[in-house]
Design brief:
By secondary structure, the protein is an alpha/beta fold. It is built from 15 helices and 25 strands. The protein has helices spanning 4-8, 33-41, 57-74, 89-99, 113-123, 132-137, 202-215, 233-246, 258-268, 277-283, 309-319, 392-397, 438-446, 488-498, 524-533, and strands at 46-49, 54-56, 79-83, 103-106, 127-130, 156-159, 182-187, 197-201, 223-226, 249-252, 272-275, 299-302, 324-328, 335-338, 348-350, 357-361, 375-380, 387-388, 405-413, 419-424, 429-431, 434-436, 451-461, 465-474, 507-511. The protein has an eight-stranded mixed β-sheet with strand order 2-1-10-9-11-12-13-14, sandwiched between helices. The protein has a five-stranded antiparallel β-sheet with strand order 15-20-19-17-16. Strands 4-3-5-6 form a four-stranded parallel β-sheet.
C-alpha cells in the first residue's frame, strides 16, 4: 500500500510540472483584508497585549487609519520601512502601509548603523515609521540642536508618539492587492555577506497562514506568546499575522528576558510558545521556574536551527514539556514543516504542510533520493518567495530547473514522510574524504555536563586537508556561580568516546559567548574569522 503522505506529496518526475495538492491555497485578495474583517467582526476582543498596553481589535484598526493618514502625506515611495520593537505598534504600522497599497520593509534594528543605511538605500523607502526609543537605540535619533541623523538624512521619520490617536481618522477604503503584489521585503539575517531582500507577496504570506491553519488546529481561544522580533520571518508570520488573521490573542514582549517570559507564562497562560533553541536553553536557567508555569502550553515549538538533544531532554525532564521542532526559511514565508505533538519523533521537523512539495536531491546527480538518504532539501509551493529584490541572477540561481527552491539544507525523509534536517550544505566539512556536518560534533559536545553550547567550523590543515575546530560556551557551576573550568583534554576524550575518530575536533577553544545573529543563530562566519585570527596550535 502506498503511504498516505506519498499520495498527498507525490513528487513529479523530472519532466512533469509541479502540481500542488491544494491549488486553492494562497488565493487571497490581500494579507490585510482578513485582519480588517476579523477586527470588525469582534471589535472589543483583546487582540494584543504588549509591554506598554492592551489593544482591542478596534484599537488596532483605528490606530492603523491614523498612521495611514500620516503616511499619505509623508511617503510617495512604494516601500515604507518599519523600525519598531516587538509590540502592537508593528501590526498597526503594517496595516497602515497595506491600506495604502505599499510594501512593508521591517528593519533589523540590531544591525550596525551602516547596515541600516544600506537597507534603506536598497529598498528605496522614503519614510521610516518608528518610535523615539528605537532611534535612540540605533544612535540615529535626530538631535534638534545638532541637526538630522546621519542614518536617516534622506528619509522622513514618522514617530508614532507624535501622532494624536485621540482624533478621528479620515474614512478610507483600504487598497486591494493582486496575489502577485509585494506585501513585504524581508531581509535575510546576512550570516554570509550583505543581507538580501526576500520578496514575499500577499499571496505567499496568505498561503502560509492558511497552510498553518489547516495543519494546526488553532482556535480563537488560543493565546500565543511572541518573543521573536517582527523583522524575523517567524515573528512576522506566525506570531503576528497568524493570530491577527485567526482572531487569537497574542502577547508581545520587546526583549527576551527569561525571568520575564516565565512571569508572562504565569499571567497569561499561553497555549502556544514559539522560540529558538537558545531561548529554551536560557529558560532552563530561571531558578524559580516550575512545571506549572508551562502547563497551559498546547504547542511548544522550536525553529530557526536544530534543537540540541541536551536542551530538549532538560526541558522535558524539568518542566514536563515536549518541544516539537518546525522548519522553514525566510524564502518560504516561512513555515514548511511543523511536527505536531501527536506525531512527535526525536529530531524530526515534521511532515510538509498542505500545499508544500519537498524533494531530497543527491548532491552530485541532482536525482531524487529515497527515504533514509541524506541530500539537499528543495521546496515548491504557493508560499515560496517571488525572488530576491534587485537580484535577478541570484533569484534564478535559487531555483532548480523544475522550479524547486534550493534551500541549501541537508536532510532526509523517513518512511512516513517526516523530515529530518541534518546539516547545512555550505557548512559541510570534507574530512578524510567523508562528509561531516558540524551539528554531529556539536550535539556530542552539548551533552557534556560543562558545555552550554558549541559551534564547529572547518579549518585547513596543510597535511590533512579540512579539520574541525570547536568553540564552546561553558555552563555556570551551581556550586560556585562561576563558569565551569575549561578542560580541553576532557572534552576531546568525551568526543573520542562518542563519535568517529575523524570527526573529533582538532582543537577546542572556550569563549565567553558564541557570536550570534539577532535571532540567536550561531554565526559560523565569525567563528571562521576567530579561527583564522588565532591559528590552531600544532599537534604531534
Amino acid at each position: 500500500m502506498i503511504p498516505e503522505w506519498r499520495l498527498r506529496y507525490a513528487l513529479p518526475d523530472a519532466s512533469s510540472p509541479i502540481v500542488h495538492p491544494f491549488p486553492d491555497l494562497g488565493r487571497t485578495v490581500s494579507i490585510h483584508w482578513p485582519i480588517i474583517r476579523r477586527c470588525l467582526l469582534s471589535p472589543r476582543r483583546v487582540a494584543v497585549v504588549d509591554d506598554q498596553r492592551t489593544y482591542r481589535a478596534i484599537d488596532l484598526l483605528i490606530a492603523a487609519c491614523h498612521v495611514a493618514d500620516r503616511l499619505r502625506v509623508t511617503s510617495t515611495s512604494p516601500t515604507v520601512a518599519l523600525m519598531l520593537p516587538t509590540s502592537g505598534a508593528f501590526p498597526i504600522a503594517a496595516l497602515a502601509c497595506w491600506m495604502l497599497g505599499r510594501t512593508v520593509v521591517p528593519l533589523n534594528y540590531l544591525l550596525k548603523p551602516d547596515d541600516i543605511r544600506y537597507l534603506l538605500d536598497d529598498c528605496g523607502a522614503d519614510t521610516v515609521v518608528t518610535v523615539q526609543p528605537m532611534l535612540d537605540f540605533v544612535h540615529g535619533a535626530p538631535d534638534k540642536a545638532a541637526g538630522p541623523s546621519p542614518i536617516f538624512t534622506s528619509v522622513n521619520l514618522v514617530r508614532l508618539e507624535d501622532i494624536d490617536f485621540r482624533a478621528v481618522p479620515d474614512a478610507r477604503w483600504p487598497a486591494a492587492a493582486a496575489p502577485s503584489d509585494l506585501a513585504v521585503l524581508l531581509y535575510t539575517s546576512g550570516t554570509s555577506g550583505r543581507p538580501k531582500a526576500v520578496m514575499l507577496t500577499h499571496s505567499s504570506l496568505g498561503a502560509n497562514i492558511d497552510q498553518i491553519r489547516r495543519w494546526i488546529d488553532f482556535t480563537r481561544r488560543d493565546v500565543l506568546l511572541g518573543v521573536l522580533p517582527q523583522f524575523h520571518s517567524f515573528g512576522l508570520t506566525v506570531l503576528t499575522l497568524l493570530p491577527l488573521t485567526l482572531g487569537c490573542k497574542v502577547i508581545f514582549t520587546a526583549r527576551f528576558v527569561p525571568t520575564k517570559i516565565v512571569r508572562l507564562m504565569r499571567q497569561h497562560r499561553p497555549t502556544a510558545f514559539i522560540a529558538i533553541p537558545s531561548m529554551y536553553n536560557a529558560l532552563l536557567h530561571v531558578k524559580d521556574a516550575a512545571p506549572d508555569d508551562f502547563a497551559s502550553l498546547r504547542f511548544a515549538v522550536s525553529g530557526g536551527e536544530p534543537l540540541p538533544d541536551a536542551v530538549f531532554a532538560a526541558f522535558r525532564d524539568r518542566f514536563r514539556v515536549t518541544i516539537n521542532e518546525g522548519y522553514g526559511l525566510t524564502e518560504t514565508s516561512p513555515v514548511t514543516n511543523w511536527c505536531r505533538p501527536h506525531e512527535f519523533r526525536p529530531h524530526s521537523v515534521g511532515r510538509p504542510l498542505p500545499g508544500v512539495v519537498e524533494r531530497i536531491v543527491d548532491l552530485h546527480t541532482d536525482r531524487d533520493l529515497p527515504p533514509g538518504r541524506d541530500g539537499e532539501v528543495r521546496i515548491a509551493g504557493p508560499n515560496v518567495m517571488q525572488g530576491y529584490f534587485n537580484h535577478p541572477e541570484m533569484t534564478a540561481a535559487a531555483f532548480d530547473p523544475r522550479g524547486f527552491f534550493r534551500t541549501g539544507d541537508i536532510g532526509r525523509f523517513d518512511l512516513d514522510g517526516h523530515l529530518y534536517i541534518t546539516g547545512r550544505l555550505k557548512e559541510m566539512l570534507i574530512i578524510a574524504g567523508e562528509n561531516v556536518f558540524p551539528r554531529e560534533i556539536e550535539e556530542v559536545l552539548n551533552l557534556h555536563p560543562s558545555v552550554k553550547d558549541s559551534g564547529v567550523v572547518g579549518v585547513q590543515d596543510p597535511l590533512r586537508g579540512e579539520l574541525p575546530l570547536a568553540f564552546v560556551e561553558l555552563k555556570e557551576d551551581p556550586a560556585t556561580g562561576k563558569p565551569y573550568p575549561f578542560d580541553e583534554a576532557e572534552l576531546l576524550r568525551w568526543c573520542r568516546q562518542n563519535i568517529a575518530g575523524y570527526k573529533v575536533p582538532r582543537e577546542i577553544r572556550a569563549v565567553d559567548a558564541l557570536p550570534r545573529n539577532p535571532v540567536g543563530k550561531v554565526l559560523r562566519r565569525e567563528l571562521k574569522q576567530m579561527a583564522a585570527s588565532a591559528p590552531a596550535a600544532p599537534r604531534p
